[in-house]
Amino acid sequence: MTAPVLPGIDQLQELPLVTPPFSYWPQTWGWLALLLIILLAVAAWTVRRWWRWQRDRYRREALQAFDRLALDLADPQRRLPALRALPTLLKRVAMSITGAPPAATLSGGQWQAFLAQRAAKPLPEQFAARLHTLAYAPDAEVLAIPEDEVWALFAAGRYWIEAHHVAV
User: Fold this and answer.
1) pLDDT over 60 (residue 168)
2) CB-based contacts of 89, cutoff 8 Å, min separation 6
3) pLDDT for res 167
4) pLDDT reported for residue 98
5) 51/69 Cα distance (integer angstroms)
6) Helix 127-136 / helix 108-118 crossing angle, nearest 10 deg
7) How many CB atoms lie within 10 A of CB 88?
8) By C-alpha distance, which of 88, 86, 95 is closest to 114?
9) By the 8 A CB rule, do 63 and 158 touch?
10) Cα 138 to Cα 34, 82, 134, distances in angstroms
11) What are the CA-CA distances from residue 49 to residues 2, 42, 43, 45, 55 (Å)?
12) Which DSSP category does 21 fall into?
């Protein structure tokens, strides 16, 4: 018996690619029109999301500042400045709202009405009065506010920053 002759690697040939039995290009203009409509809708959605993300930049920055204030509440040395900064932060957020009446001059009942009007759910009754206390009361009175009330104020403030209504 003779040994079979095996082909060498230099004799191998690449197989030709099979042509698909159909074209990938749409056969009618309707599919092309549908593709263009979908691409335009995706582009419009992307631009709108980007615009909204840019518009809410002040909200993200305010929430970062709010988180720093909440961390400062645990430190006795930084507790009073953190409590004093909450009303200022909320006023800065209110002044950043586009299309809103000037919030810098609001106080008392007008400030409470402004906050309540833009809140997604009702705020505590004396929310603005407690913010006034945090901003202007003597240090001893501010530090004497019960812990649960402080956390309730901070929770309401955070919720208002996250969910306040912005007119478009």
Assistant:
1) no
2) 62, 65, 66, 69, 157, 161
3) 60
4) 72
5) 28
6) 130
7) 14
8) 95
9) yes
10) 67, 15, 9
11) 76, 11, 10, 6, 10
12) S
For 104-119, how does the pLDDT look when each residue is reduced to its tens digit (9 = 90+)?
A: 787 778 888 888 888 8
What distance in Å separates the CA atoms of residue 31 and residue 4, rounded to the nearest whole number?
57
Residues with Cβ within 8 Å of residue 51, at least 6 apart in sequence: none
Every domain of the chain and the residues it spans: 57-163
For residues 71 and 143, give the distance between their C-alpha atoms in angstroms, rounded to a whole number: 16
Residue 54 has pLDDT above 60, yes or no: yes
Q: What is the mean pLDDT of residues 45-66?
A: 92
Phi-psi region of 99 (alpha: psi -120 to 50; beta: other; left: phi over 0): left
Mean pLDDT of 23-38: 85
Record the pTM. Answer: 0.71
Tokens of 107: 């106080």
Q: Contact, 73 vs 82, CB < 8 A?
A: yes
pLDDT of residue 1: 64
CA 100, 102, 107 angle in degrees (round to 5)? Answer: 115
Q: What is the pLDDT of residue 34?
A: 92
